[in-house]
Request: fold
Amino acid sequence: VQLQASGGGLVQAGDSLRLSCVAYGRTFSRYFMGWFRQVPGKEREFVAAISGSGGDTYYEDSVKGRFTISRDNAKNTVALQMNSLKSEDTAVYYCAAGRRGISGDSGYYEYWGQGTLVTVSS
Reply:
């Protein structure tokens, strides 16, 4: 599975941004999908995850109520809608795919996209 993330950019605090990740490969619906983010010098951290059917979602506490993860299995895409952005959301965002189960543990994910930069100015 190859993943390609897009949608990053420079926004102001309070704005919204929608990230998208397209997966190239078969059986996309069998994969749990996740979004992670990383700030230079820090470890990659979990943001959100979604089950293969889209029926289950899981969020890191700091983004609950602001971010929404969704997927379209017909189009092999997963999205992260980010609202009420804060300066601390600034990071490179990565999408990831795995089959072990919905999780915030990066070790559960086998495939990673290249990352897209989100910069939130205060």
